[in-house]
Design brief:
alpha/beta; 8 helices; six-stranded parallel β-sheet; 19% strand; 6 strands
């Protein structure tokens, strides 16, 4: 925390998936690609034993997290929220604090320019290192997504991709974990 993040380390990293919900995803510009990359990322995070917090915006109106993503995340638990940023929700902050030694946050979800961006800005302000997975975020309009990515990067978030995250956390080849991750990304 504090300063420019160098690299993600497995034992110091946790992940947050924001609002990847059934009724929200169809409105996204790149929903098919984002779903596929997010599922791959989540399966890899499970292999690497990275804790994942899942959020849902106004579940009654927007429905649950997409079933394939919920399965890939390995949990049915989620943080219910009404605020766009996850950070004002006490249950969200408690979920982060359960893993207080994990000060790097892998962040992905929808919409990039609303909930993802506001959460990223709040996490950065709170001292977390934020790694934004660009191929696992989306908005209804590409221009909103692109401007939000630029704003988050200017604020200190590190832009990355799902495959890059998995191999950075893995660190080296030659293990069963490497074989499982390699198979997953192919």
């Amino acid at each position: 925390m504090n300063g420019i993040p160098k690299r993600m380390e497995r034992e110091k990293t946790q992940a947050v998936m924001i609002d990847m919900q059934e009724r929200l995803l169809p409105a996204m510009e790149r929903q098919t690609e984002v779903r596929e990359k997010t599922e791959m990322l989540l399966r890899g995070l499970q292999i690497l034993k990275i804790p994942v917090t899942v959020t849902q915006q106004y579940t009654r109106g927007l429905g649950p997290t997409a079933e394939t993503l919920r399965e890939a995340a390995g949990t049915n638990e989620y943080v219910e929220k009404l605020s766009f940023s996850c950070f004002p929700e006490p249950v969200f902050r408690e979920a982060l604090e359960v893993h207080s030694e994990r000060t790097s946050v892998i962040l992905f979800g929808v919409e990039t320019h609303v909930c993802v961006m506001q959460t990223a800005l709040d996490l950065l302000a709170a001292g977390y290192d934020v790694f934004l997975v660009c191929d696992c975020v989306d908005s209804r309009r590409g221009s909103d997504r692109e401007i939000a990515l630029r704003r988050m990067e200017a604020a200190g978030a590190v832009l990355t991709t799902a495959e890059s995250v998995l191999f950075e956390l893995l660190g080296r080849a030659g293990s069963d974990t490497f074989k499982r991750i390699s198979k997953l990304v192919k």
